[in-house]
Design a protein that fits this description.
The structure is a homodimer.
Chain A: H1 2-7, H2 22-44, H3 51-68, H4 70-79, H5 87-111, H6 120-130, H7 133-137, H8 146-159
The first copy, chain A, binds a DNA duplex (30 and 30 nucleotides) through loops.
Chain lengths: ~170, ~170
DNA sequence: ATTTAAAACTAACATTCGTTAGTTTTAAAT
DNA sequence: ATTTAAAACTAACGAATGTTAGTTTTAAAT
């Protein structure tokens, strides 16, 4: 709290005119971002896009948040474990629901023959964590455009690294 | 240190008969894993495998470590920032070299027409962070076999999520 | 049985941490 | 000019942290 206070030009004790506790800040950050993700899911899931389009829209949000709001993303991604009950359970419930709907989208894609028959859980977790590097990297290396990064990552995920004409299988 | 001591059935002070400091533990963990990665790179990079085979071998190690040694992986991945100089610089130099050689492999793959013309840095970071979820997830959900996970992830990265026959581009 | 070295213990240290109590300053409203 | 409420301050608290000093226990070697 002392570091945080000095960052905004205050004494640590003065912070408590504005916040209730250190924990409140953690709650604020975690649930603010969790709501952003949930809201997007509630918009995308029932829409009439194809499953692949839905995945793209959701991943785009993850890329957006991890690169543009990276300090917040870092807190939510790495520090949610320190939420206290009942907030922690509430947070985990939100995450569980988000992940469930996300796997549903993937499974629908598989069923419709648009997405390969991968394990939806593995695909989901791989997808979600693959954009995490942006949260640590983007602030230091601003020479790349977010949209370029987005397209590169999407391309990687959707059609893979192997060049189209190359026959790689053993 | 008190938690750690009680975990091994000791008083905190007794730990200091075995270690020099808390920091020493951090160094030990970080450099032990960093060496494992570096050694693998020194074995794989000069080998006569194709670039894609090299990438597969390296990613396999990341999956192995993140799933089987997940507490160590978590410390190295998340806590290396707390290394003190000169260890921190040394660690970062090792990482830089590792990442450089990894992008070289990718670039060779691109040059040889085996790998799509993605940005090698983006591909690298996406690849490396995409397997991080295993470090948090594997211990709790042991119903999946590491080798199954390995193959699923490889398939995703190499040939993408989009089903072969599906025409997805807008 | 005695010695000895490793490894446990107890007690305490100096810091750091989040927070509270009480007081003073700031600045807008009367 | 006076009042008032917001927001800063100083001082200090109790708890937790990594660590050290000094002592006792453990167990193998003599």
């Amino acid at each position: 709290m002392r570091d945080l206070a000095s960052e905004v030009g205050m004494e640590a004790a003065s912070l408590y005119n504005h916040i209730k506790s250190k924990e409140e800040i953690l709650n604020e950050i975690c649930f603010s971002l969790a709501n952003t993700y949930s809201d997007k899911m509630d918009e995308v899931y029932p829409s009439d896009n194809t499953p692949i389009e839905k995945v793209k829209k959701l991943i785009a949000l993850h890329i957006q948040i991890n690169s543009m709001s990276s300090p917040l993303a870092t807190v939510m991604n790495d520090e949610w474990r320190h939420l206290t009950e009942p907030c922690k359970s509430q947070f985990l419930d939100m995450r569980k629901r988000y992940e469930y709907l996300f796997t549903e989208i993937i499974q629908q894609g598989v069923k419709r023959g648009e997405i390969k028959a991968v394990d939806p859980r593995i695909a989901l977790y791989t997808l979600l964590s693959s954009v995490r590097w942006l949260q640590h990297w983007y602030h230091a290396n601003r020479d790349l455009d977010v949209n370029d990064i987005k397209e590169n990552i999407m391309e990687m995920f959707l059609t893979g690294l192997v060049a189209d004409q190359y026959e790689w299988k053993p």
